[in-house]
Design a protein that fits this description.
- The chain has 135 residues and is mainly alpha-helical.
- The chain has one domain: Ferritin, core subunit, four-helix bundle (Ferritin, Up-down Bundle).
- Helix 5 runs antiparallel to helix 6.
- The longest helix is centred in the first third of the chain and has 28 residues.
């Protein structure tokens, strides 16, 4: 469950923001808050779409970790590494969204495909914003 792991990692970085943000601190803090809010707000809609397709969203942390390709946070990195890791994690999620769109199209589920496209658009924007901090 990429979305949950991405949200957890953003949350952990936000919690640690007083430790890690150095230069560009206010801009990085605002970006983190924006992405945290966006990812959190999308979570319920994702679960609703999964339910509409006749399944259940994973509810245990162990199952979410098992389904995710996003690594858990072990230590708080420097601000530059943090932004780079979040950009890479966001890119992993984008790849999964693209795969989901293809599956939805093949299954003739246009509402799901459109929903995933909206998520993709938001995360592509997140990606270039995160990468702007690493240049």
């Amino acid at each position: 469950m990429y979305k949950y792991q991405l949200w957890v990692k953003i949350n952990e970085y936000q919690t640690a923001n007083t430790i890690v943000y150095a230069e560009n601190d206010y801009a990085a803090k605002l970006l983190g808050e924006s992405q945290y809010g966006t990812v959190f707000d999308q979570t319920d809609s994702i679960a609703e779409h999964i339910r509409a397709l006749g399944s259940y969203a994973p509810t245990s942390l162990a199952r979410m970790i098992e389904l995710s390709k996003i690594d858990e946070l072990v230590a708080i990195p420097s601000p530059l590494v943090m932004m780079s890791e979040l950009a890479q994690d966001n890119d992993k999620y984008i790849m999964e969204l693209r795969a989901g769109i293809a599956i939805a199209d093949a299954a003739d589920e246009p509402a799901v495909g459109n929903f995933l496209q909206d998520l993709l658009d938001a995360h592509q924007k997140h990606g270039w914003m995160l990468r702007s901090f690493t240049r």
